[in-house]
Design brief:
By secondary structure, the chain is of the alpha/beta class. It has 10 helices and 11 strands.
């Protein structure tokens, strides 16, 4: 047994019998064909900030042109073995995902907080009306015929957009209710995650301390504080942290175990072990 295999086995032993909270990042979705920002081989990318998005129509035109192509591809992605494993893993008090792709929801995860929202939803920044991304996608196709076929070969990026500079002329509609600015209902860089959403996650992590529970991080480099804060909170409370990720993370020094691996196989092994040991089904409480 190699050292890496031994660490993975020891981490699985720790996770097999304890109550869990799981935090996932983009690495969980790479096996579904969605690229991540910071995994090995990833190209440095600078996603649009909220401040850029609201600065003027040209920035929004650039965002929506790229996102229109990217979401047309992302919505075709299917949950992979890791998503399905987490959906059936018994004893998970809460799954916190930093991903906006909706794949945990489609896999049937019973208790979930989409920390950064869902790219499949759209909100008006003026009247706050929420609408379906599918409906907006169809409208953008009508307003920009042949756009998708013209740029069918451009490379996909994380968060549902593409590498594209030729966005002049792309027509972006306003809100049908108030003519306001439409934005995907996700948390951009420069925005804050809604406080009630964060508090629900904190409460789940805090509960682990009295349950001899474990925080499992899967497929996240923890580069941004949005996810790292839960690792810091768990470590401060004496809750063991296990990190499964390809490459180093900002939380490694706080972890009881770090497993340098992809997530699908590890999560499948974990679900199988917990089911074999007779834990409550994924839809039941702890």
């Amino acid at each position: 047994m190699t050292a890496a295999t031994e660490i993975s086995a020891t981490a699985l032993d720790l996770l097999a019998d304890r109550p869990l909270v799981v935090l996932t990042g983009a690495g969980v979705s790479t096996d579904s064909g969605i690229p991540d920002y910071r995994g090995p081989g990833s190209v440095n990318r600078a996603p649009m900030t909220y401040q850029e998005f609201v600065a003027g129509p040209e920035a929004r035109q650039r965002y929506w042109a790229r996102s229109h192509l990217g979401w047309g591809r992302m919505r075709q992605a299917e949950p992979n073995a890791g998503h399905h494993a987490l959906a059936r893993t018994p004893g998970v008090g809460l799954l916190i995902t930093q991903n906006v792709d909706g794949l945990h929801e489609r896999a049937g995860t019973p208790r979930l907080v989409a920390l950064h929202g869902r790219i499949a939803d759209v909100v008006c920044l003026d009247c706050r009306a929420q609408t379906s991304r599918a409906a907006l996608h169809a409208l953008l196709d009508e307003l920009n015929p042949d756009f998708a076929t013209t740029y069918a070969e451009v490379a996909s990026r994380p968060d549902g957009d593409v590498d594209l500079d030729e966005t002049a002329g792309f027509v972006v509609p306003a809100c049908r209710d108030c003519e306001g600015v439409l934005k995907p209902d996700v948390v951009f860089f420069g925005e804050n995650v809604p406080a009630p959403r964060v508090q629900r996650c904190y409460d789940a992590v805090d509960a682990l301390a009295g349950q001899r529970g474990v925080l499992l991080v899967a497929g996240s480099s923890l580069t941004v504080m949005s996810g790292l804060r839960f690792v810091k909170r768990a470590a401060k409370a004496g809750v063991p942290v296990v990190i499964v990720n390809r490459g180093a993370t900002r939380g490694d020094e706080l972890a009881a175990y770090t497993v340098d691996a992809g997530t699908s196989e590890f999560l499948t092994d974990l679900a199988d072990r917990r089911e074999a040991r007779g834990h409550k089904p994924a839809g039941a409480g702890l």
